[in-house]
Amino acid sequence: IVGQIVIYCEDHNKAIEELELDELLKFSPVFEQDIYDFIDYNNIIEKGIKKNLK
Question: What is the 3-state secondary structure (H, E, C) of 11-53?
Answer without folding.
Answer: HHCCCHHHCCHHHHHCCCCCCCCCHHHHHCHHHHHHHCCHHHH
